[in-house]
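We modelled the chain as a single entity of 222 amino acids. Its sequence is:
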Amino acid sequence: MSEPLKVRGMVLLAAPSGEYDRRTVLLTKERGRITAFARGARRPKSPLLAATSPFVFGTFTVYEGRDAYTLVQAEVDHYFMELQTDYAAACYGCYFLELASYYTRENLDGQEMLNLLYVTLRALSSPKLEKELIRCVFEMKAMVINGEYPYETAEDSSLQESTRYALAYVIHAPLQRLYAFTLKPEIFQEFRSVQNRFNRLLIDREFKSLDILKTMVESAKV
């Protein structure tokens, strides 16, 4: 058996495997996105029962196998329980987890995307911040981290000055200051329109969580 490896990360996905096991997808600082199986994690008294749920952030001890990892221990720093008691926040959070999974790969440095996901979920936990703005900012910054966002958009003279400023801010802002701004409704509409256009151009798959999210947002308008 390989030596135990400690990785810093977050649970993106958890699904049943066999009778009592759980298959997890972790976004880790050291190994990028990995699949890890937690044996017996679905047993009521298992110490891994809560630690292998989506949104859990901490340090995980794993063993590397041929096709996947085995998760044997978790030291949890944050459960993000507040997202589990707020249906709207949970919908947004699930979409962010799915989008982070889309942008990450195994054995590639996952630190920047992991940090983005963490600060975004913290922002999502605040009732003072507009969730649709958080969503647009997360989508944009994920593209920036992935190296595919068209930076020249922030200089597009057809956009309002405040919109250009907001775009430039998201592109260049450090993660700890990423959600330290608000937008007037008319500016946000243009800001969101820009990001929606790039989502259509640059993302080549559909997300089930996004479909649910869109339905929820549309229902709230009625």
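As a brief sanity check on the tokenised model: The radius of gyration is 18 Å. The longest helix spans residues 185-202.
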